[in-house]
Amino acid sequence: MSILFPESVLSNRQRVIRELLQGHDCATKLKFLLQNPIGSYGSTLSAEELLSNVERSFTKTIYVVTSSDTEVFDENGSHVGANSCNDLRSEDSTKSKKRSLTTTIKDRRGSYKRRRTAQTWTKISETIDDNHAWRKYGQKEILNSKFPRSYFRCSRKYDQGCQAMKQVQRIEEKPYMYHTTYIGFHTCKDTLEAPQMVTYSDTLDSFLVNSNSDSKVPNEKDTPFCSQIDPIIKQEYPKEDTSNDLKDNLDPTLWSDLKDLELYKPAILLSKVQSDNADTVYSCTDDSQSLRLDFGVFPSHFSTDFHFDENHLL
DNA sequence: AAGATTTGACCGTC
DNA sequence: GACGGTCAAATCTT
């Protein structure tokens, strides 16, 4: 049995705002932490944890923005509808009559449907590890590339139907760096308990309150590069009147912008967040929707460049 | 033995 | 037709 995503555009907007507020807050704390490594900002989270929270906020925001009303998830949270590329083989079998006439079942290598509608984004880092279990299913020499490209899919593809995939390729100029392209979100439930997302949920819509099996959105671990959230984060935004606290902690101009934030135009928001002193810029880009999210508060030792690419979406 | 990786073949897109 | 993405048998690892 499948469950339709019930969110309206309005609630999606609230979700976007909430996630961006979270990301902004974590980025601000990270900024203070980096500027004042000893004193800190009253945050008990490490820089890495704050960075992970920022990444998570990006991911969720992107997810909300790019999700259509026809996105469908099963009761386990697995994505099974609309843009999903589930059951590629069955779909492909109906599509390629030509091949079925000329090949046997045993000789079906290469039969697939290229997932042009899947959400993709890229990340550049020194490691390919992202706390997810991947299974390599291919490697290919790429034209004009010194290093081959490796193809991975979620190790839970078959037992949970998770459609997340990634492609990893070393960068010629920096062989110690990896350019990772993520394709699709994790819809599997990882063995690690998904962290709970309770920070702003009581004052805004409660879509992300829990990331358990009842949730209709991918849980925290479903996002490809999210790490665990320190439970302490729950204490940072008490359930009572969270929105006001947020408002108080934000630059009034930013808050005003956020209130007027239009769905699908988050570039307005994050251009204000960007720092002139940034050594590393995180960017989320949607060429088709003029979406570009830049985050420039990270020093160079966070040698990770995150780039979201929605070329194939919408 | 089971799971993961390698690798050549196949197929869709450009 | 070239290139890139995927499949699946063979091989390797645990």
Automatic annotation (TrEMBL):
Listed GO CC annotations: nucleus
Subcellular location: Nucleus
SUPFAM superfamilies per UniProt: WRKY DNA-binding domain
GO molecular function ontology, one term from the record: sequence-specific DNA binding
Presence of the UniProt keyword DNA-binding in the record: yes
InterPro entries attached to this UniProt entry: WRKY_dom, WRKY_dom_sf, WRKY_plant
Domain WRKY: 123-186
Annotated region described as Disordered, given as residue ranges: 84-103
Segment forming the signal sequence: none
Keyword hit for Nucleus: yes
Pfam families: WRKY
UniProt keywords, alphabetically: DNA-binding, Nucleus, Transcription, Transcription regulation
Identification of the protein by name: WRKY domain-containing protein
Species of origin: Lupinus luteus (European yellow lupine)
